[in-house]
Structure formats: C-alpha cells, structure tokens
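User: Hey, my collaborator sent me this sequence without any context and asked if I could get a structure. I don't really work with proteins. Can you help?
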Amino acid sequence: MKSMSEKIAHYLIEMRARQLKEGVKEKALEFFSDTFACMLAGANETATQIVKEYVCSEGGKAAAYIYGSHIRSDACHSAMVNGVAAHFHDYDDVCTTMIGHPSVAVLPAVLAAGEETSADGSAVLRAYITGIETCALMGRAYIPEHCRRGWHSTETIGVFGAAAAAAELLKLTEEELVNAIGIAASESCGLKGNTGSMTKPLHAGRAASKGIMAAKLAQKGFTSNRTIMEMDAGFTKVTTGVCHEDKLEEAMKIQNSEFLDKGLIMKPWPACKATHNGIWAMLSLLNKYDIKPEEIRHIDCKVLPYAGDILRYSIAKTPTEGKFSMNYCIALIVLQRKLTMQDFEGDTVRDKTLIEMMKRIDMILDDTLIPGAYFDALESTQVEVTLKNGIVLKERCDFAKGGPNNPMTREEMGEKWRDCMKRAVREEGIDPILKMLSDLEKIKDIHILAEEVEKYILE
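Assistant: No problem. I've predicted the 3D structure and written it out in structure-token form, which is a compact way to encode the shape of the chain:
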C-alpha cells in the first residue's frame, strides 16, 4: 500500500506528462493575472516594506525579483516578500475546497523558482496549475476539520502547493517529490488567531518560501518520512485528527481540476471572503428598495459557524481589522454602496457615522442556513434589515459575485487589475504588463516579465 505522500507524488508526476483539460489554461491565466495584480497592489505597503528590509539585511544572491522594487534576492526570500505583498490587501483568490488562498502561496514560489531556473512562460503557467491543484487535493483530504482547529490553510496547505509547483519547475523525480511533500509537512504552520494583523499575509510569504526550500532540499537528496501524513505524530494526527483520503483519491481518479469543478473564487472586494455573501445580499436589498442609511434601525447578518472563526471583529478598530469584520464591511456598503482598497486605509475606521452604523449590525452564527453545516462552499449568508418603520427586509445570498455561479466579467477583472497595478507601476506600464500576462506562454524566459515590471515601477 502506498502512503499518502507517495500517492500524491505519483499523481503529480503523471500529471506532468498529461495534457491539461480544455479550459484549464484559460482560467489559470485569469487567476495568475489576478494574483499578479494583487501582488503589485501590496508591493509598497508597510508590512511588505518591513519584510523587504529584513530580506535586504540578510543578503542573498540576486536570483529573483522582488516585484515593485529594484531589488533581487535569493528565490526563497524573494518569494516571501512577494507572498506578503500578494496577500496584504486580502484581495486575492479563494479556494473553498481548502478554505484558504492558494495563489498567494503558489504564484510567488513559481515566479521566484521560475527566474532561478530561467523557465519559460509555459513552464511557469504549468507549475502554477500544478500548485493550485495540489492545494485543492490537500483541501479535500483535510477540510473543514483542519481549519476548525484554528489552522490558517493559506500557509498550512499552501506550503504543499508551493512545494509541488517548485518541484515541477525543478523537475523533481517521484522519489524526490515524496521527500519534498514530507519536508513541507513539517514546515506547515500558520494560525488563524493572527487574522487582522500583518502576520496573516506573512503566512502566504512563508508558504511560498518554504515550498521552494522543500523542493530544493529534496532535489539535493534531503529525506523525510514517507508515511509522515498518516503515522503517529504525523501531519493528520497532529494537525487535524481526520483525513478524508477517499475524497482525495476520488479527485485523483477523475483527474479533477479545481479550475473547472467548484472553481476558484476571484474577489471583487478587498476583504475576507466570509464577508462577501453578506455584502452581495446587502447590495441587493439596497438596489431593490433604495434604502437610505437613516431609515435603518438594525441589521442582522446570519452566517455559517465557520465565519465566526474568521470574522473576529464586530467594531473594527484598525483598517486591517475591518477586512475581517462583517459589521465594518456591511456598514460601508450601506453608507456608500461600494467597497475599495481605500476603505481599509487611513482614518476611515474612525469615522463617527461609520462607527454608529457598525453598532446597528449583529453577525449571528446560524447553522440552519445549511442544516448542521459548520462550513459549506456556498458560504450562505442571510441579511435581515429592520427599518425604523417596523418593516423587515430579507435577502439570502448563496452565490456572491466572483464565484463560478456569478463570475466577474472581463471588464470587471480589468478594472480591478488596473486599480491594483497603479499602486506600484506608472500608468503607461499597465497595458504592456497586462498584455505580457495574457501572452504568458509566449515568454521565453520569465526574467522578461520581471524586467518589464521594473521598467515602470513608481519611484
């Protein structure tokens, strides 16, 4: 009987030689571009700058580009900085299968390892796909119990995706890949308790960095326990307590692609995905009934229990806490009918009108939305607005904007990407960069993409 690490390694090696299903590349390019734009949006933020200063103080050979700067460092450190930048605004994609953010762990690893190996765009895209599919496989095995214990799966599961992606670029053998998975298992970490602080985006950066390290060590002959996932004191028993290996094996049997099945979710708003169904439901009520803020007495937002583990702040006191506060997000939607990156910066959180509106909102954990469910991919939310005249208006949302059942349009994607990119590059550079991303497979060396961005960075 093969161990779980051996099964995954064998599947990924077979996947390397297999033609991708129709439509996978096209969807992957969209999410690649989306995460790339989010990375540029976060390149100049304080958390990213602190990590970058740390990396510069540590040194490292100039092998991979730190996006939005004139700095290069070793692949592991560059991936760490770029991962923090990509996840800083919490504007990046979500995979409900892993209840986390796969691309911010995988893409920075792919870009850094790709530069170090002088990979072409086609190889980089293939490695990115491999990493995302690996995150989804691991999610099937361990979710939702893993997250319920308090692990932040962006790092704890993302590290496996980053390792698999780096292994694809380094062309690890099956035996080496088994060891890389085992190394990644011991490097898996990240606590949801740090949600709302700078440490949350650090989880993405560390997953990317440690994924590269795991693949490189394995390539050099570093070993790990082949049964690390299922053994006593191994990953399953220590972190989760249960493994749904049957779901993992079924996904491998049918060669499931996360890009085509449940699909990834692209975010239209820069806040935790657990707020998005509430935002969409509130917008729907505002549009249907043209509700004015002064007409509202109270708002109840009924959510699945898992949301209570993530949306920890009722009255947000910092902009970062606002990203993980249903009250904050719904209050802003009521007051201005939109939500932008600027709403999570500066002194917005101290606005008296906003604070007063937050106090009129309650988030209620309700497992009757989907009976008995702690978490469900629908992330169902029901918003109930009580007006001062006594009328109660209700709206349930199962499919917020951004998911496969309610996708963003090409125009909406383009608007988001431009808004993100202009925080790091000059206006005249945005179109050339977007064109290069859309033609990723034509790039002969991923260095060219880094050089193109560096030409236009804001000084």
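In plain terms: The first helix runs from residue 4 to 17. You can pass these tokens on to your collaborator as they are.
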